[in-house]
Fold this protein.
Amino acid sequence: MTESDTFKTIREMCDEFDVTPRTLRFYEAKELLFPVREGQKRLFTRRDRARLKLILRGKRFGFSLEEIRQLLELYYMGDQQKTQLSRTYDLARERLADMERQRAELDEAVSELRQQIEWGEQKLAKLK
């Protein structure tokens, strides 16, 4: 195994995950990532890459960074990730319910806006 298989530079991480260096530094400051430091150089481990993948997925699903941080920390409970998986499952179910509620609200708003547009079109047609 070569060093490039084990460690990735900040540029390689940015390219692989389509994020900015600022994003990686932010996640490091929030104690979500823990790159190895060689002077000013940051080297990201496989663990960091796995964590970043989970962070980005969690953000996509609307989890807060604090929720993500707490879920990542549960990995070290020593119970074969049972606690981590259970908590993730619970949060995911809650998030899905929120997303479905938001979608229903958005569907209703779209329907109402369509009706208003149709009403406006009819009014404009009568005024011509």
Remarks:
- The beta strands are 8-9, 36-38, 41-44.
